[in-house]
């Protein structure tokens, strides 16, 4: 494959560097921050950024920088875990639907249509209210409600490949359905799977931020970028204490934008036009 290096590649490399750096900072959070993210200091509330607290403190005196990097652990964990769940469900059901067709296809597509016809946040908030808001329920909610988009992409790819000559030849030499799917179909739809995975991570991080902002995601005192943003619901905080919400909002924007650039770069690199 010959691939001409473009200016856009620099952006993709920068995006990858940002994501790797943020993941590393989140993993090494105990060694980077000297403050417990949940430790209250009622004598030091709403302190502005200073040499002691580089991003200030919040309404109960917790160090905002510590909460920001520990919150990165939660938001990134939700993003990648929900993506894995989406891929597992979407690839399995999308492949079964596209390859076998018939009543199986109709049944799976009916389930997909039912899930997709309801407003995502209405259902997510309802389920979260029933199960209780915590990180593991949040991952399950995002994964279960988001797999239909992945399944539809996989189904469309399988439908376009299953009548190909090499699939017919595989059937003719006696390969069973599992072998055909594993060895011939899935390897040939790796490109859309990778691109879908990157976009799913970005979408899951945004969803976590939105649900935590509404109080139906990760609950305090556990920090996440979403529940840190919930401080902006207060007008006084918006106007006077910018350090409580701008850093978390900036991190969400940077991560989601970087992941989208990575997805675009992978899609362009794997495009047949570049072969």
Structure description:
It is a single chain. The chain is mainly α. It has a single domain, classed as MetI-like (MetI-like fold, Orthogonal Bundle), CATH 1.10.3720. Helices cover 71% and strands 0% of the residues. The radius of gyration is 22 Å and the shape is elongated. The termini are close together.
Provide the fold topology.
Layout (H helix, E strand, L loop, with lengths): L6 H21 L1 H4 L31 H37 L1 H16 L2 H12 L3 H27 L3 H8 L4 H9 L4 H24 L11 H5 L5 H6 L5 H25 L5
Helix pairs in contact: 1-3, 1-12, 3-4, 3-6, 3-9, 4-6, 5-6, 6-9, 7-8, 9-12
Label this structure with key terms.
275 residues; mainly alpha; elongated; 12 helices; MetI-like fold
